[in-house]
């Protein structure tokens, strides 16, 4: 599909190969999209482990009824910080890392549109992480209001809450700059001949995700600013005595929060849509419908936010609207799932590690999608609100959805990043351990939720003991399985089978035309794509 | 295909981003300490601001030098245009959160507080009429009228939009003195606007007893007008930079994105003000 000719314009200018600072300063001052992508990925993995340790502490406490490991107050801090760290520290930066590495390679650009700002987008994250994680050590500890930071709880917390607010502000600045960078790169930096409708689907999903980020991160900034002024400057946004309304916080938050969940899944769809055609050795089925489905999901995501609030008080008309709007999202999502399956249909399939993860993604993510549909039905949701059923649902879409797709993408592009093929045995071991332990952890939570076990509670009634013990065992298994990933990546960096430019047999696209590992600078002169 | 394409400008490694990151770390931690009255909060906060200002000067200075050095091709110019447009859109969404809060309170929250069970059991006799400071924030206040200073301010901002466009025409036609005069007048109008806003705030505190803690009216009034004022300040600073750059002989009729970006931003704060004038002051 992509016949290439390099159009060299004269010799390289002399400064080109004289790289800037070396050692640590290379990473601190870099303007190279590959360096920055690598830093995003390493950062997100560190945050993933930090959030994971919090999750395991939670599961240790919930292993049996009664209080044994942590104080209830600290337990609440852990659930809150686990959510914030995983959402803003692990999943989102990991996808931005993929975007940084792959989008310029996929569209034939020499770098991101704003290479210096790109560096700032990344380097704002460690300060935000310091503020967020540092809040555990201030008087009163970290915020314990839940990752949604609902008022009035969030108006009452100690200094940890303020640190979380400023951390969110800084991460928001980082996200908005990153999103603008991605939009401009995709719209303005495509190689000649790379029409929008020829772009790899990963670029499309990120383009649409970036628009979502630009639209909703400022709204989150507004929401936490109102909390800050309510806390310290006497305003009454969320105080009924002053004419405000705590429910208003939920509306503003979820206007951000629902698009946010698509921000965390659309790039995952993009990664899976790259991998499945490669290992099916067929072009993606229904490319155009995939693009339109992604856009439809994004647009609909602005009209469904109050399905998070069916029990907080809403007229029946509102409940009906948000219920049906939410169920409508199942249509474009279904389009995607069917297209993936249709791509595999009669393909000449092989199941290397990335394909295993992508196929696993389809199974478990679809389960999470179905439980989402169940939660969307207002009368059922009123029963399920704030139970472990909801916890099971969003871990099926965020762990089995976003995280599994991230692993799929990591194994898929590791050869391009490192120049070595990842070890298939280790990769498959990682997959099967994760898949099995993931389901041991989260599947029982459906039953716990249906039986009425509330979430965010450190203790529970005896009847829930067996399933909780099971979930805790699964969680520790899942957590340990992730160390296999670390081994796989480190081994892949240090050696292994040499990767060809086209590392996987069926892989198509510009990123597979540059050598593996990708040289520091690629596509300095735009490749010219043959007309199709 | 044998067309030739100019290379896209990719900057060399830069120390400014990490300075900016350090600045925001100090800014955030200092602010969190300050609002909780912990130790050196304000010092850390202002330290962060100082580093941020140094970083912005250095970074933008470098961008200006690169631009004047002719490093930016047409494609880079296009990148700048796209990015400024979407940055302004993100600002629109920031204001949307606060406008949304205002509409929510007026249309949903106050009517709910003043009718039915809420009124009967919790807040007896609460009328819920706008402007309201809610049922239990007792201090009476006088709301800000629309037809005094705010109306004058509307005129000022609208005229400043016109003078800025006049300056832009001067730039396009190569009339440099028209450019400089137009910018100067625009900045002065912005400064008058800000002074009148400051006067309005002191008047509100001193005579109307309208304060930040005057319930939901005070909250929405001060946060909406305050964030708008902050954006006017930023816009005026941008225009001042453009004025100095004009005096230094920067910009050509074909190549003046910095000016355009500042102008777009200024028009954006104009439009926000029109919404503010209608829904915060007038209705």
Strand order of the largest sheet of chain A: 1-2
Give the largest interface: A-B, 87 and 73 residues
Query: Any idea what the CATH superfamily of the largest domain in chain B is called?
Result: Cytochrome c oxidase, subunit III, four-helix bundle
Q: Based on Cα principal axes, name the global outline of chain A.
A: globular
Assembly context of the chains: heterodimer
Radius of gyration of chain A: 23 Å
| Poorly predicted regions of chain B | none
Q: Which stretches of chain A are poorly predicted, pLDDT < 50 over at least 5 residues? A: 1-18
What class, by secondary structure content of chain A? mainly alpha
In CATH, the architecture of the largest domain in chain B is Up-down Bundle
Give your account of this protein's structure.
The complex is a heterodimer of chains A (532) and B (283). Chain A is 66% helix and 1% strand. With 532 residues, chain A is mostly helical. A two-stranded antiparallel sheet of chain A has the order 1-2. Chain A is globular and about 65 Å long. Chain B is 75% helix and 0% strand. Chain B folds into 2 domains: 13-71; 74-282, Four Helix Bundle (Hemerythrin (Met), subunit A) (Up-down Bundle), CATH 1.20.120.80. Chain B is built from 8 helices and no strands. Chains A and B meet through helix 1, helix 4, helix 5, helix 7 and helix 8 of A and helix 1, helix 3 and helix 7 of B.
